[in-house]
Amino acid sequence: MSDIKDIFVRHRKYIFYLLSIYVLGYGFTPYQSVFLGLIFGTALSLYNLWVMVRKTERFGQAIAEGRKVMSIGTFSRLASAALAVMISFRFPEYFHSAGVIVGLMTSYIVIMIDIIIQTIRK
């Protein structure tokens, strides 16, 4: 399962680079609500990615030991995404809803781009 941790470290690094770009955009552009929405959504996307990696590791250990596994955390990831969208609707002056939604998809976009890069390298 160390491969999953290595992949997660690489994805986390990419997401932190994106977050730093978003922070610069928040500080130096007039589109502060858009960038704050991107920051908020991407931070929750990173959290969801961490939960998915942690649950996948536990799933693999349980399968190796012959135990049953209840879930891989889909409900908690969906609940955090729904909470982020509800917060963006509640405070539209701070968080742009489209920015939050795009931010929530960031980890999946990073995963797809990383797969393409790793395929080309091999």
UniProtKB/TrEMBL annotation:
The keyword Cell division does not apply. Pfam families: ATP-synt_I. The chain crosses the membrane at residues 12-28, 34-53, 74-91, 97-117. It is a multi-pass membrane protein. Keywords: Cell membrane, Membrane, Transmembrane, Transmembrane helix. The keyword Cell membrane applies. This is ATP synthase subunit I. It comes from Bacillus salitolerans.
